[in-house]
Design brief:
One of its GO terms (cellular component) is periplasmic space. It comes from Herbaspirillum aquaticum. The protein has helices at residues 3-21, 63-79, 97-108, 112-124, 133-142, 147-154, 157-172, 191-195, 203-227; strands at residues 38-39, 52-58, 83-89, 180-183, 187-189. By secondary structure, it is an alpha+beta fold. The chain has a five-stranded mixed beta sheet, with helices on both faces. The protein is globular, with a radius of gyration of 18 Å.
């Protein structure tokens, strides 16, 4: 079975186990602020209209991001037109910037959705280094993308601007670890946040619990939007 199929199977098992073992004191089906998700002190502006904005902060070299990616992708697909989803690559250090530029270059080429899981697999299963300008270009050549087109975009003002904007979002959302999910510019959660109450459970169960919390928050925000009662946000 391929890497991502194994991961998805593990997470699916976690969902089933979760319903049988998680007690009322830490129930993702009835999430509690503070233990299952946090509310930002300063809500951030969104531009998703009537849809619920969902943002994932991630890092290609993060094994937890790689492990969660298949089930998160399936969750996003399940939401359909209810949400507007975007990924934001983080940069906790300057050495992270090449991977930010890699993601935004692939996004500009219309290849981000296709290649993100393949990059995770290359890094975390095949042990390839894809984290510097040189190693990124070597990977791009290896998979057969147009080298010159990639370089033109990789070094472009547009991609550099998106990388700087990602750093600003990371700071605004107070991202201190990845993966992290932000919903409607107000709520943040993650497998790590939910996992505090599930510390003795497998990572797959913590991931599944986080998805349940996300279901709850998306439904909450969608209901507020439908009722016209979404709190105002500072622009």
């Amino acid at each position: 079975m391929r890497f991502h199929q194994k991961l998805l199977a593990a997470v699916s098992f976690g969902v089933l186990a979760l319903s049988a073992s998680v007690g009322a004191s830490a129930s993702p089906a009835n999430p509690q602020v503070g233990s299952d998700y946090r509310v930002l002190e300063q809500a951030q502006p969104t531009d998703s209209g009537n849809k619920v904005e969902v943002t994932e902060f991630f890092w290609f070299d993060c094994p937890h991001c790689a492990a969660w990616d298949p089930s998160l992708t399936a969750w996003v697909k399940k939401q359909g037109d209810k949400i507007s989803f975007k990924k934001v690559p983080v940069a906790f250090r300057d050495s992270f910037v090449p991977q930010q530029k890699l993601y935004y270059t692939l996004e500009a080429m219309g290849k981000a959705d296709e290649l993100t899981p393949k990059i995770f697999q290359a890094i975390h299963v095949e042990n390839q280094r894809i984290n510097t300008d040189k190693t990124i270009l070597a990977y791009i050549e290896k998979i057969g993308l147009d080298k010159q087109k990639f370089l033109d975009l990789y070094n472009s003002f547009g991609v550099q601007t998106k990388a700087r904007r990602a750093a600003q979002l990371q700071e605004a959302y107070k991202v201190d670890g990845v993966p992290m999910i932000a919903i409607d510019g107000r709520y943040v959660t993650s497998p790590a946040v939910v996992g505090v109450a599930l510390a003795n459970q497998p990572e797959s169960m913590q991931q599944a619990a986080a998805l349940q919390v996300m279901d709850h928050l998306v439904a909450k925000v969608a209901a507020e939007k439908a009722a016209g009662s979404t709190p105002a946000k500072k622009k």
